[in-house]
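Homework help board

Subject: predicted structure for assignment chain

Our instructor gave us this sequence and asked us to write out the predicted structure in token form, then describe one feature. I got the tokens but I'm not sure how to describe them. Can anyone check?
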Amino acid sequence: MVFNFALPDIGEGVAEGEIIKWMAKEGEAVKEDQPLVEVMTDKVNVQIPAPRTGRVSKVLVKEGETAKVGQVIMIIDDGSGPSPASAPSPQAVPPPAAPPAQQPSAPAPHMSAPAAPATRRLARELGVEIDTVKGSGPGGRVTDDDVRRASASPVAATVSVQKAPPPAAADGSREEVVPLRGIRRTIADRMLKASLTAAQVTHVDEADMTELVLLRETFKGIAQKRGVHLTYLPFVIKALVPALKEFPYVNASLDEAAGNIVLKKYYNIGIATDTEQGLVVPVVKDADKKDIFELAGEIEKLADKARRGLLSLEEVRGSTFTITNVGAIGGLFATPIINLPEVAILGLHKITKRPVVRDDKVEVRDTTYLSLTFDHRVIDGAYAARFTSRVIETLQDTKKLLTEVL
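My token output:
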């Protein structure tokens, strides 16, 4: 008996997912609850177990393709009934459809066409006469690809359908073709949407981090005793919170459909994290309620899970404002792209010693640049500049920062 394995509802409003990897191929046996397929959605990879024991009869969605929740992605034969691989009865074969008017009047050759039920259903949906398609699968079986090619080129399909050769490199071995899939494709889609949707402007300012450098050194020993590595990021988050409260339109989202600006009165900070798979943004929830040691521990834990591909959907959802930190890599400053549906993102950059004029004297100070990219549909330039100045004011004032960090 066959079982139609549909992409389950993963939760959190997920509507679709990209098939990253199948752990079992057609013809292989699977056991209930064994990892069966890896699905990527919202920058998170989720392993879905086999719903029952049996043998894989048909994989309907290939790696790199996207499936909707509820869509059948695999057929499993549990061995309790007729095998789906057996040729269907004549009654199961749909009657030949009348050829379109633009096709040649010459009759197409008739063939015996073994195919899985799902392939026959696909043929009916695409208007393809499956009995006229020559299969390229084992034993001449018609595959989904055969049907799709026949749909795209019906005249050629009535004569012969062969497997398309893999695309060759444009210039021999000097070029490599890499499929755009997984997290990389999600990043591409989101970055393009952000660029086309938001009216993005970047404001850059300089911060004197000398006092913060000393403050971090003071607290590093305490952090080590608590088992956490203390970076500058927890201090920046604590400096952000009072600024976000004072300038609520920065901690907001734009509901275009309803025509509303949604001001968030909670402070969930997304932390852009560089991984081998691409950029991932885990979220520190309720940052205003945590001290720097709690923040440091949570950031470290989330970053580690991100790099190992173990983040849950909950850990990448619900951010109200995002920070991207490229200070450890270097560079002067950059103009980050907003993490929709948020309306602003803050870029942190390398802290380095620079000559600074103070009281008409040149001093060597630890400074950095902060770059705030904001959606000009929601935030005006002066508002963004005042917000950034408020963040810098807290970062530069040890007393103010101490009231926030503990």
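Reply (TA_rk): Your tokens look well-formed. For the description, you could write something like this. The two ends are 62 Å apart (CA to CA). That's the kind of observation they're looking for.
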